[in-house]
Specification:
single chain, about 375 residues, mainly alpha, Growth Hormone, Chain: A, 2 domains, 17 helices, MFS, membrane
């Protein structure tokens, strides 16, 4: 679709371009359920926060590097269509790499040792045949009424509203309240993403280390992380209201960087909870989460428009206070209802548990064989 958009825009007009953009959005809807399912099939609970933090760094890298690259293409002799061609070429290149090296699950991977494969099958999700996957029913009622999933959905809605504000309305806020120039505005709105990038990776590594050493439980880890995200974000939004005006742009920059830092812990909070509470239904729950995500993006302009009609400092402060209260409510809901453990509706059947017990015996045998092979090699 990216490669067709320039042609449609130049030669066929608005409706064809809109259709191409619509199809691009439809195709994008498959990505989140897909890579969330990959993570639940490849990473144990104690490693999922780090895995999520690493692959979502693409969001921040796109903000930091995407705009300059796009601007360079627009100023080149190829013009703006090259932005879409570059995106299309990158997508094709990634598809080729995935087809060569990618696997849906450990038992389909051809490039790993037996010990690794058995370890992942034992500690991640159970192997299912095609018949088992087809016959598996989704417990919609139990899933949609589960307290941990409801907590995730609400936190997902709130963080979407807050991030949409940061991405779309922050430039307008800095222009109206801080009176920044266009160049300063661009730096102000893009640099905080760097701090988000750095913190979420370091925080996820710390959280997973604590879980691996049994210092904190999975549920404690997601609740601590989500509390940092929402209570921290609420605090810094409130501080912006209290102390920021056009005479303090540096303070505003520090506070919005702090907000982005707090948002980095979301990956180890509600997002990790999503991948932990029902691993075999991750794709379905991710799709539901995307619907809530879209609702959040639609609601954000309504919230901003309700409190801000003329762009005065007082009206912007009302918007930020509303977001501060909304963020606090998400933290309270997740502390009360959130979880990092597999829920009752998602527990594995007895047959799967028996298979895993057999796998434990296989992994011991495989390790013994590996040690014997190494000993024979050393003797020779």
């Amino acid at each position: 679709m990216n490669s067709l958009i320039p042609f449609f825009s130049i030669h066929l007009g608005y409706y064809f371009t809109f259709g191409a953009r619509f199809m691009l959005g439809v195709s994008d809807a498959f990505t989140v359920p897909f890579y969330n399912s990959i993570i639940t099939n490849w990473f144990p609970v104690a490693e999922r926060s780090t895995a999520l933090a690493i692959y979502t760094t693409g969001n921040q890298l796109a903000i930091v590097f995407g705009n300059p690259i796009s601007a360079a293409f627009c100023q080149s002799r190829w013009g703006w269509p090259m932005v879409y061609y570059y995106a299309a070429a990158s997508a094709v290149g990634w598809c080729i790499v995935w087809l060569i090296f990618g696997s849906n699950s450990p038992h389909e991977c051809k490039k790993m040792t037996t010990v690794e494969r058995i370890y992942l099958n034992e500690n991640v999700v159970a192997k299912k045949t095609k018949e088992q996957r087809k016959s598996q029913k989704i417990p919609w009622v139990k899933m949609m009424t589960n307290h941990a999933f409801i907590a995730y959905l609400y936190c997902n809605f709130v963080i979407t509203v807050l991030i949409t504000f940061i991405m779309i309305y922050l430039p307008t806020y800095t222009k109206d309240v801080l009176l920044l120039s266009v160049l300063a505005n661009g730096a102000f709105t893009s640099l905080p993403s760097v701090f988000n990038f750095l913190f979420k990776v370091m925080w996820s590594l710390l959280v997973d280390k604590l879980k691996a050493n049994h210092i904190i439980t999975p549920t404690a880890s997601v609740k601590i992380s989500q509390s940092l995200t929402n209570f921290g974000g609420a605090l810094f939004f409130f501080l912006v209201v209290m102390f920021v005006d056009c005479t303090r742009p540096i303070l505003a920059f520090v506070l919005f960087c702090s907000i982005n830092v707090c948002f980095g812990a979301q990956i180890s909070g509600a997002y990790t909870s999503l991948l932990s509470i029902a691993p075999q239904f991750t794709a379905t729950m991710s799709s539901v989460g995307m619907c809530v995500n879209m609702i959040g993006k639609v609601v954000t302009p309504m919230i901003v428009g309700y409190f801000n009609t003329s762009g005065t400092v007082l009206e912007w402060n009302r918007v930020l206070l509303a977001f501060s209260c909304l963020s606090c409510s998400a933290a309270i809901v997740f502390l009360a209802l959130g979880s990092g453990e597999v829920q009752d509706f998602a527990h594995e059947p007895k047959e799967t548990i028996i298979e895993k017990e057999e796998d434990k015996e296989l992994i011991v045998t495989a390790r013994m064989n590996s040690l014997q092979a190494e000993s024979m090699t050393a003797l020779n």
